[in-house]
Amino acid sequence: xxxAPTGELGRLIARRIxxxxxISVAEFMAEALFHPRLGYYRRAMPLGASGDFxxxxxISQIFGELLGAWLADRWLAMSRPRPVRLIELGPGRGTLMxxxxxxxxxxxxxxxxxxxxxxxxxxRLQALQDAKLSRYRPTWHARLEDVPEGxxxxxxxxxxxxxxxxxxxxxxxxxxxxxxxxEPDGETLxxxxxxxxxxxxxxxxxxxxxxxxxxxxxGRAVAATLGQRLRNDTGWALIIDYGDERAGCxxxxxxxxxxxxxxxxxxxxxTDLSAHVDFSALAHAAGLPTFGPTSQGDFLLRLGARxxxxxxxxxxxxxxxxxxxxxxxxxxxxxxxxxxxxxxxVGDDRSAVPAGFSDPSDAT
Length: 364
What we know:
By secondary structure, the protein is of the alpha+beta class. 37% of the residues lie in helices and 21% in strands. The protein has a domain at 42-164 and 216-243 and 278-362: Vaccinia Virus protein VP39 (Rossmann fold). The protein has helices at residues 7-20, 25-34, 40-43, 56-59, 61-77, 95-103, 110-113, 123-133, 217-233, 279-286, 296-302, 305-313, 318-332, 337-340; strands spanning 2-3, 23-24, 84-89, 114-119, 139-141, 152-157, 166-170, 175-182, 189-193, 212-215, 235-242, 254-257, 260-262, 272-274, 290-295, 341-346. Mean pLDDT is 91; it is low at 360-364.
């Protein structure tokens, strides 16, 4: 697959490759998404009809409200620490957290205990988050490591899928890494295999020639940081993202622009890139008890999604009732977000089993 780089960032990446040689897919993703000036998540407005994708909190208030109830329940199970660092990784427009905090305003002492911390690098999104959450006096950070230590409640919805991944292909000699290089014209980006077996081979599964795999070093690093934080300071984290049992054992990297599929090398900095999340790798890196992953549909239903929808419909117009039903279907239906998205909790092993993971097979 070959695509000509377009735009300033594409030219910068091509120039870098021309000077230093091919780069990994992970390095390309890091530049395309997080370049300090031209990266997609630094300058784009990715959410909504005018963006490239829509997330669950933007579909229905039910999503954020139920997650808020889950977080408040974990705070109670932790014996109500005060203060507690309430952290969201990649908070989008601030919709999820706004709904979560509105739904928990009657939980005695919870809001008084909260210190709100948002991990966000996009200044335009920070402004939208501030407009919705200013009453809670949020603090913004570029990395999870920058959030002050202390008892923690963390939520990450569609965060890990945007972290860079390395890609590999199994050949007759062994696993080799997929790289981003240049066509002979010196300007056109292309994907090609590295000439030798990768040193990452020991981390990859036994598979026949032609198989593909991915590793997210960045995702594992964030999970390890999170695990260490919860181990030291107590707390819980909730991770919601898309992926399946084959995550990590296939090439899932995809590109979207304007809600349509695009080439992964096409218009870097202007195109969203994401990959399925390997939940087992995150759990291993965190090194703490985990619950799930379970499907988003099952998780929301166990938390009372249908009951909340009925409550909202009781005082809604007929048109609004239909909209509430349609939004709930998008969140829980198996052929929509219900099974594509999965939910995993990470805990400190000193608190009760969390809500939403009632099936014993969900616990690991």
